[in-house]
Amino acid sequence: MKRIILICALLFLTVFCFGQSNFAKGEELFMQNNPSQAAAFLERAISEEPANPVPFLYLGIVYEQLGRQDEAIAIYRRILPSAGKQSARVASNLGNVYFQKGNIDMAEQYYSQAINLDSSFSNAYLGRANTRIKAGNMQSAVNDYEEYLTLEPRSAQRPNILQLINLIKSEAAAAEFRRLMAEEEAKRIAEERQRLLDSVSASLQSAAESSKSFSSGTESVEQYEGEFVLD
């Protein structure tokens, strides 16, 4: 009996260690920037720990590195509903993949979902800002960049982001100035046109009245057929 118990314990320990070693080995290869070999270990790890979101995250990133974007999306979407504390990260990673694929609408949707799940998840603000730049929503992008810098004041990207924010704001100010100038010019042209129309209309009206008066006087002379008699 003791021997049977010992064998069962050893089998349990072997299975447990094997599961752990798959993830540990996959993680090690991932850290060594060897995604092609890491993938196999991580795939086995998630089959052994289907409720653990961490191997899913690693495998999703590995698929991204290998250019297997659709598989990365499938992995992330599979774990997202049960990712728990990792939900915001998973949603943000989905945003990254869709951004890489050029699907701006879906990218923004998942970045926004990540922010709704965790309003302090800074990477989602940065990703959404970049997405909004692509979409041409400059002011919204600036808001997200500023929120990112608030959450990450020591970010290595801070100088570049500030430079981009200043550029967007200066271009927006220039565009607003051009718009106001265009409005003023359009208003001036419209007023000038109206003055010209009023002047021409008044001139034509005056000419018409003069012609009518002259015509009436001539008619009264021509219609008198009698003789003038002087007393």
Features:
231 residues; mainly alpha; Serine Threonine Protein Phosphatase 5, Tetratricopeptide repeat; 9 helices; 82% helix
Can you characterise this structure?
By secondary structure, the protein is mainly alpha-helical. The protein folds into 2 domains: 15-82, Serine Threonine Protein Phosphatase 5, Tetratricopeptide repeat, CATH 1.25.40; 83-191, Serine Threonine Protein Phosphatase 5, Tetratricopeptide repeat. 82% of the residues lie in helices and 0% in strands. The chain has 9 helices and no strands. The protein has helices at residues 2-31, 35-48, 53-65, 69-79, 87-101, 104-117, 122-135, 138-151, 158-222. Helix 3 runs parallel beside helix 5 (87-101). It is elongated. 27% of the residues are buried. The model is unreliable at 4-20 (pLDDT under 50).
Can you summarize the main beta sheet? none
**What is the CATH topology descriptor of the largest domain?**
Serine Threonine Protein Phosphatase 5, Tetratricopeptide repeat
Q: Domains counted in the coordinates: how many?
A: 2
Name given to the CATH homologous superfamily of the largest domain: Tetratricopeptide repeat domain
Q: Which structural class do you get from the secondary structure elements?
A: mainly alpha
* Mean residue pLDDT: 84
Q: Please report the total strand number as a whole number.
A: 0
Distance from first to last alpha carbon: 167 Å
User: Helix count?
Assistant: 9
Q: Architecture of the largest domain, CATH level 2?
A: Alpha Horseshoe
Unreliable stretches: 4-20
Helix fraction?
over 70%
Share of β-strand residues: under 5%
Gross morphology: elongated
CATH class of the largest domain: Mainly Alpha
Order of helices and strands: HHHHHHHHH
* Overall radius of gyration: 39 Å
